Amino acid sequence: MDKFNWDRSDLPEGFMFGTATSSYQIEGHGFGGAGRTHWDDFAATPGNVVRAENGLKACDHYHRYAEDLDLVAAAGLDAYRFSVSWARVMPEGRGAINQEGLDFYDRLTDAMLERDLKPCATLYHWELPSPLADLGGWRNGDIANWFGDFTDVIMGKIGDRMHSVAPINEPWCVGWLSHMLGHHAPGLRDIRATARAMHHVLLAHGTAIDRMRALGLSNLGGVFNFEYPHPADDTPEAMEAAAVYDEYYNQFFLSGIFKGEYPARVLKAFELHLPKGWQDDFKTIQTPLDWVGLNYYTCKRIAPNDDPWPSHQEVDGPLPKTKMGWEIYPDGLHHFLTRTKDVYTGDLPLLVTENGMANADIIQNGQVNDPERIAYVDVHMKAVQRAIADGAPVEGYFLWSLMDNYEWALGYEKRFGAVHVDFDTLTRTPKASYYALQDALRR
Ligand code: IFM
Predict the structure, then answer these.
(1) How far does the centroid of ligand 1 lie from the alpha carbon of residue 100, in Å?
(2) DSSP 3-state assignment of 91?
(3) What's the CA-to-centroid distance between 51 and ligand 1, angstroms?
(4) What is the CB < 6 Å shell around ligand 1?
(5) Which residue out of 127, 170, 327, 372 is catalytically annotated?
(6) CB–CB of 161/67 below 8 Å?
(7) Could you read off the pLDDT tens digit of each residue along the chain, which spans 443 residues?
(8) 53 labelled catalytic
């Protein structure tokens, strides 16, 4: 299969296609006066990241952004979802501004507009400045105002040209994955830290939205990630375990923003750990949004165990898997698009802000054949079409990712790009999936 089974005519008028990246994963954080981040520290600690790889060079997008945006435009895409690095703009996280960093995002924005690409910004995609991590990072409630100040600085410079902005990519990863499971920086495994980080992420989200509205920006949203939890078997215990997973993974943040409350099972476990006066923060957390973005990749099989709360574990599932070991389950995308509308967002526009797969892509005779990625995107686009037919107001789809990049704790070996990157020479080679996308968008 080298073509998609859909094209623009299968989607509503104005449906937006884009591709997504993030600053630390592609830019090269060693360039342009960027400050140290907690990811540099995490990667420098033995055992955290495959081969202790970091984002100091990454794809060198900092110097090659024009070539990269040419690829986005030549694919026929409408939009480019990118993130800005807090530490590139404010190396200490607060106070002094790195003019070189601000100028970089200014040039990047103009370069998108010159190519007729809609700039869709994310303010935080995980590279916290180390000096703020020293102060407790996401565990410290002051982070909401530090983040608000950063928002003022960066959006004061480029906000006038943004198509859309979201404050924080994948709050679950910033909170749970990084403070409960310890898989991402700062690598904590602590329930109190997790409860506070998850709450402060929401407070920072609302603060940033309010700051941007005060600056006169519009089209402001939130981007959340979802995984479909199958009970490992049909016992009531397994169903309860999956329900707990669903609450802290898929519902905590939407419930905070759209209902002003936390899901019951999670609240029971977190209440003792949340910061004093947490209920008062919902005024800020519930500030209205203009759209919601869903990042979706996979499902999980959840089995109960005797550990302390959440008292469950993931077990292997039967479906075909990507190179991340993630099962391919497009029905989950349909489920979350329709449930988000039905339970939380009503008529608010929804976007698939990330979807894609890691694949064993190799260059042969200057070409990369990745039929697996074409098939993956194809079945997920079908799920989007079904969700639209069922009434979900889905207005766009962003492929993760434009090019192979730094896959966090897994270093550079998981390739998610539509464009192959040779990490020695930094040569970019569009894969078959890139050409399939180009064909579907032009057809
Ligand atoms: O690479 C990540 C990205 O940073 C956030 N969403 C999931 C992607 C694939 O794991």
Answers:
(1) 27
(2) coil
(3) 19
(4) 22, 25, 170, 295, 354, 400, 407, 416
(5) 170
(6) no
(7) 689 999 999 999 999 999 999 999 999 999 999 999 999 999 999 999 999 999 999 999 999 999 999 999 999 999 999 999 999 999 999 999 999 999 999 999 999 999 999 999 999 999 999 999 999 999 999 999 999 999 999 999 999 999 999 999 999 999 999 999 999 999 999 999 999 999 999 999 999 999 999 999 999 999 999 999 999 999 999 999 999 999 999 999 999 999 999 999 999 999 999 999 999 999 999 999 999 999 999 999 999 999 999 999 999 999 999 999 999 999 999 999 999 999 999 999 999 999 999 999 999 999 999 999 999 999 999 999 999 999 999 999 999 999 999 999 999 999 999 999 999 999 999 999 999 999 999 98
(8) no
- What tokens appear for 282 in the block? 């919902």
| Cα of 407 from ligand 1 centre, angstroms | 7
Q: What does the domain layout of the chain look like in residue ranges?
A: 8-442
Q: DSSP letter at 169?
A: B
Pick the CATH number of 8-442 from 3.50.50.60, 3.40.50.2020, 3.20.20.80, 2.40.110.10: 3.20.20.80
What does the angle CA 6 – CA 11 – CA 17 come to, to the nearest 5 degrees? 85
27, 227, 354, 407: which one is catalytic? 354
**Alpha helix segments (H runs only) across 115-251:** 130-134, 143-158, 171-172, 178-179, 191-214, 236-245
